[in-house]
Structure formats: C-alpha cells, structure tokens
Description:
By secondary structure, this protein is an all-alpha fold. The protein folds into two domains: 2-127; 130-194. The chain has helices spanning 2-5, 15-54, 58-112, 129-187. The radius of gyration is 40 Å and the shape is rod-shaped.
Amino acid sequence: MSQQKDRRKSYLVDRDFQGSYANYVFKSCLLFVISGFVLFSGVAGLNYWFIQKMGMSSQMQTIFWTTVGINFALLLGVFIVYALLSFGLAILMSHRIAGPAFAYERRLRRMSFGDFKDPFMSRKKDQLKELEDSLNRFRLMVWKKVEEVENQRESYIRKVSSLEDDAQKFRLQHLIKNPVVETLEKHTSRRYTG
C-alpha cells in the first residue's frame, strides 16, 4: 500500500536536480559535438590543402566539396541524434536517482508524524539501495525507541494515577477527621498540629 502512495507519476520528479543533471550531460555532448566538428573541419581543410598542392582539376575539387558537404550533413545528423539520445538518457538516469530520493522524502515526512509501519521501498532498477537499507534500519531503531518511550509514558501515567488515587483517599480521610479535630480544639486549649 505504501508503494502505491509513493508512486511517481512523472519522469521529472525533482526538476532542479534532474534539469541540472540533464544540462550537464547535454553540455558534455555539445562539447563532444563541437570537438567532432573541429576535427572534421581540420581534416577537410587538410584535404583541401593537399588537393591544392597536388593541382587537382576543378571537377575533382567539386567532387571533394560535394563529399565534404554530404559527410558534414551526415555527421551533423549523427551528432544531433546522439545529443538527443544523451539528453533522454540523462533524464532517465536522473529519474533512477531522483525518484527514490522523492519517495524517501515522502516516507520520512510520514515518519515525522509517527507512521513507522511501512518500510522504505524502491523499484528494482532504482539506485540508492544502500541508502534504502540504512533508512530501513534507522526506521526500525526509531520505531523501537518510540515504543519504549510510549511504554514508559503509559507506566508513568499508571503510577501517577495510582498516586492520585492514594492522595484522594488521604484527602477523604483528612476531611472525615477535620470535624473531630475542630471539636477537640474547641474543648481543649491545645492546638492540633497533625
């Protein structure tokens, strides 16, 4: 039942964390793409220089530039697909971290209101399993301590209640004795200090 309460409805559970993680991956991919273009441009420039030195014909130069253009377009397409796949993978991977953190936060919030029954649970493919084990051990330890304190409180309430009963009996006895003491004090010169 707890697993149902904590079910995540979206892949973007913690937008700040997941956004910064995806941004980091996207910037890494962009750096890779820029490096690829620089490398590609360097190789194309070197080939063009070689063609110029060799004295290739204009028809050969046209074939060269057509090939460079086609390769550039293919390379650009591959890099765009790579960047999009990397971004999607970053969202998916961050979900495996942010999702359990979201569920643990909700579970801890319920624990703060005294609900210790349900354990911390995550899905099989989620990360942070060691944290989950530690949190479950912590939950059991706190639950035992809360039960000990609750038992001590109940014992204290029973003792105070017993003392209140004894005090009530003493007050009743004292009220019964008071008229007698007042009568004795009227007829004698001594005061009762009882």
